[in-house]
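name: query_chain
kind: protein
chains: 1
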Amino acid sequence: SDDPVPGAIRFLHELLIDPRFRVAVYSSRSGQRGGVQAMQTWLADHYLDAFGWGSGSATRFDAIDWPTEKPPAHITIDDRGYAFEGQFPSLDFIAAFRPWNRRGAADA
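structure:
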């Protein structure tokens, strides 16, 4: 129900118009009954409000894949992900982890 993060809809639009990329939206709610429909409705409201129904925007929006299982990906953008680079995080790091929107100024 929150508004999109500033810049998110523009970023999505840029991905959708660039032929190098396939966009898939996957969430922990993707497998829940009605979850994909709820995400589609929310994103359509924000995307089509920003870019309108003309000029192919609806067609671009329709190009988004909505998998119900985590898809293989070249890159995954997630606010709760950890970039694994061969070293496992400490248990203290995991216990203290907070996503970007839950961190205070001291965490920056």
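note: The longest helix spans residues 35-51.
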